[in-house]
Amino acid sequence: xxxxxxxxxxxxxxxxxxxxxxxxxxxxxxxxxxxxxxxxxxxxxxxxxxxxxxxxxxxxxxxxxxxxxxxxxxxxxxxxxxxxxxxxxxxxxxxxxxxxxxxxxxxxxxxxxxxxxxxxxxxxxxxxxxxxxxxxxxxxxxxxxxxxxxxxxxxxxxxxxxxxxxxxxxxxxxxxxxxxxxxxxxxxxxxxxxxxxxxxxxxxxxxxxxxxxxxxxxxxxxxxxxxxxxxxxxxxxxxxxxxxxxxxxxxxxxxxxxxxxxxxxxxxxxxxxxxxxxxxxxxxxxxxxxxxxxxxxxxxxxxxxxxxxxxxxxxxxxxxxxxxxxxxxxxxxxxxxxxxxxxxxxxxxxxxxxxxxxxxxxxxxxxxxxxxxxxxxxxxxxxxxxxxxxxxxxxxxxxxxxxxxxxxxxxxxxxxxxxxxxxxxxxxxxxxxxxxxxxxxxxxxxxx
Length: 448
Prior knowledge:
By secondary structure, this protein is an alpha+beta fold. It folds into two domains: 10-227 and 350-446, Aminopeptidase (3-Layer(aba) Sandwich); 230-346, Alpha-Beta Plaits (2-Layer Sandwich), CATH 3.30.70.360. The chain has helices at 3-52, 61-73, 148-163, 186-192, 195-198, 253-264, 266-271, 309-329, 355-369, 427-446; strands at 77-82, 94-101, 106-112, 131-133, 139-141, 171-178, 204-215, 219-221, 224-227, 229-238, 242-243, 278-287, 293-294, 297-306, 339-342, 351-353, 374-376, 398-406. Helix 1 packs across helix 3, helix 1 runs antiparallel to helix 10 (427-446) and helix 6 (253-264) runs antiparallel to helix 8. The two termini are 24 Å apart.
């Protein structure tokens, strides 16, 4: 192709994009909202069923089958279960569906389908009453306290709309129901089972997440670094047990643990560049059995948050240095130094939203939802394993946007957040906006 031919091709492509955006605005702003409202009662029924019957990470069999069944009805080619966990005793219930509609871009739309071990306290008629056995064989209450039920219903609604308007788009649509997001292994499991080998490699990957900080009708976006690396660290402080009345005969791991916890607060404040982001939180401390017994050990559980690989490596290095040397300073023998374990199977890599993909999608959002309903947000140190889909050798551009779930006009200080037993999206407007936004995002990339 010569320079003149290429310039002509580029102009035609640019004009097509402008026409596509205008088409999206026309269809969704005037007609699509009516179609969504028509489908909303059935989608709400599907959502409430999911909410009332949540399943923990690694155990999403029924949820997987419900989603697969509905997508088959729409004409998608469905494969489930999909995924391979490192622990071969676990079944991965991922759902991969595909709809081909001519030669064009391939777009992956992902939802997460797992729930949390939380006792629901919302009091709504469709509240979960489920109790289930987790991987440790402990019976726990189960709740959709992070909105994965809303995400899944939104994916189904988007599939319904796109399947019914194939004349408006071209390409290959891949829809993924992903397991175990809350445990951090679901995305890796479906990739390990050949997501990018058995199905077309996407040109773009999209996802959304409900957001209690946004009101219904709004969508939020954050270009670049949007969500953090997450490391889960187990530390065992090993001392020398003794009688509580004779502490000089031992090396008290309770006191040492207290010193370690305080010293770890200097990692971010004194070892990380102040313009960088880092979090070190000790979320759990367990040790001892009785008032007058100095135990042999104390266990700590930490969560560590960062954005860049460099900051992450520095934080982990500092945690080890401070922990080990605090124990040494307390007189702990070399053979009793602390055991530090990074639970790498639960690692979440940071989410980087591709800036060009964000910019293009946000322009379409503004056309359809209105300028006032599209909100730029700051990065958060929460985590999401959706990031995994952009970190393979294929370097797929990814974008996860947010959908408001809080009642319009509600007091932000009283809104329950993610992982709260009271978290509950306002169903109809949250689902409605989610479907419109995701359909808009797909058509922006695949519209003709």
